Amino acid sequence: MWINKLKSFLLNTIYPLKCIGCQKSEILICPKCFQKLISLANQPIRQETSYLEKIIIALNYKEHIVKKIIKSFKYPPYIESLKKILSSFLIIAIKKFPDDVSYLKKNNFVLASIPLSKLKLAKRGFNQSDLIATELSQKLSLKYQSELLEKVKNTKSQTSLNAQERKINIKNIFCFSGDKCPSNIILIDDIYTTGATLEAASYVLRQAGAKKIWAFILAQG
Q1: Contact, 114 vs 79, CB < 8 A?
Q2: Quick one: three-class SS letters along the chain?
Q3: How many Å separate Cα 64 from the centre of its chain?
Q4: Residue 150 β-bridge partners
Q5: 82 inside domain
Q6: What are phi and psi of 178, to 5 degrees?
Q7: Which end of the chain is more exposed for a tag (fewer CB within 10 A), N or C?
Q8: How many domains does the chain have?
Q9: Do the domain assignments include residue 27?
Q10: Is the bond into 31 cis (omega within 30 degrees of 0)?
Q11: What is the CATH number of the domain that holds 102?
């Protein structure tokens, strides 16, 4: 579409193409930085929580290159094409646990993304978790239901809040918006810090009928 071509032209004019990681090569992510990200994705975190059966996290947000690439995706210049690169690192992490992948497919787990408020979605133009979930659905052959959750409040950013403030900030922000809730769900989100967002989302899904809930996350905050 012409609007996408115009957007690409403006982005290349305002933000000349350089490696997001090292600012050297005239490529979005140079081979050296890409290999570093692959190395990080090959050391994923896999853990249980009180509200999730399992959570798999691909990257560490404290790593400079990880923070830069996710910020470039979520904030200006909003590089939407990073969805394929970022989802590839998450897939690397997930496939480190082949028994888990088999279990999820056998038990008909469904992907569900953490939603944005309507205001934030309008500002950004896309939901990063939705884009990643779509990529994962295609690459892992898992069904994706994009509208299971709705964010009903426009909350302040969680970035500068402590654990207690985050819990208060996201209280009652989600509601179930699907017709029927799947029994087994995998939540998709970009950053996991205290887990307050995932806890709030999983609570709503369990109230709607979900039995088992996992999560796939791009980076640990």
Answers
A1: no
A2: CHHHHHHHHHHHHHCCCCCCCCCCCCCCCCHHHHHHHHHHHCCCEEECCCCCCEEEEEEECCCHHHHHHHHHHHCCCCCCCHHHHHHHHHHHHHCCCHHHHHHHHHCCCEEEECCCCHHHHHHHCCCHHHHHHHHHHHHHCCEECCCCEEECCCCCCCCCCCHHHHHHHCCCCEEECCCCCCCEEEEEEEEECCCHHHHHHHHHHHHHCCCEEEEEEEEEC
A3: 18
A4: 175
A5: yes
A6: -90, 175
A7: N
A8: 1
A9: no
A10: no
A11: 3.40.50
What amino acid occupies position 207? Q
- Residue 137 inside a domain? The answer is yes
Widest distance between CA atoms in the chain: 50
Tokens of 191: 């950053």
- Nearest by Cα to 90 from 46, 41, 51: 41
| Separation between Cα atoms, residue 183 and residue 114, nearest integer Å | 17
Global confidence as pTM: 0.89
Q: Which amino acid is at 159?
A: T
Query: What is the span of the domain harbouring residue 63?
Result: 44-154+166-220
Residue 70 phi, psi dihedral angles, 5° rounding: -70, -40
